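Figure 2 data, in text form.
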Amino acid sequence: MTAAAPSPEISVVVPAHNEEANLEPLCLQLASVLEEASSSWEILLCDDGSTDGTWGSIRGLSKAEPRIHGVRLSRNFGHQYALLAGLQRARGAAVVTMDADLQHPPRVVAELITKWRGGAKVVKTLRRGTLHAGWLRRSASNAFYHVFSALSGVHLEPGMADFRLLDRQVVDALREFEEEGLFLRGIVEWVGYDSALVPFDVAARASGKSKYSWWRMLRFAWHGVSSFSIVPLRVGIVLGLSSSVVAFISVIYAIVSKWGLGEAVPGWTSSVAITSFLFGVLFVYLGLLGEYIGRILVESRRRPRYLVSDTTDANDG
């Protein structure tokens, strides 16, 4: 029986979806940085159901460099679950997570390692600028961070992403979370631990296009908020109580006008408009309630959060 290989000091987890052209330059830069920063390392490339040659590129890189490992998910489960697949397989004393498009500069990894060796259990990064994103996208991103922080009670600084270093103790804690709708940025903040912050300048995407459409961004934002907060449900309760008060006052006014003043209640159009508005609020709230009930249903099924179809390691069970 072959003895297990010793665990490396640093693991780097990189989720990839249709990033065939970016993986080789990314690994070359990462390997150069890691050789100088650490005595032992590994890179885990997680193919999130790519439809191009991403998996073939991963296999080729792994064959050329044994410290590069690949995991292929059976379909596109999403960025957060591809990250989770890597975190659950990473063996390093510290684990760095980053994107495959080279917008997270590999050179910054050395600084993350330095902060970790200085005692930080979590080393977060903060984008200094997003010049490569449009004004509307930047504004929407900043608004989400503010709304999330206000609703959840977990503070997220605008500009934070999934480019970070986690100590083994933190990684083991994250692996205990079994919830659906995974939002690692919020979970990492929620678990606490001593942290440090490293600002960086976003680089231009090396190749290809961003996989985050507006729809995927909105869905990701909703998963983040609903995973951490029931405030939207409480807002619905407040709106319902407010609507009831308005309706009660309207009924009193109608009775007084009819029997006290002997006049018909004027303003039929405005009454219909108000009624329509209140019904609109009601149906929005019912939809919101349905979303939370749907989340409960998904959690109760206890399905695997992702499935692995292939790996580059023959002994990976």
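Caption note: The mean pLDDT is 75.
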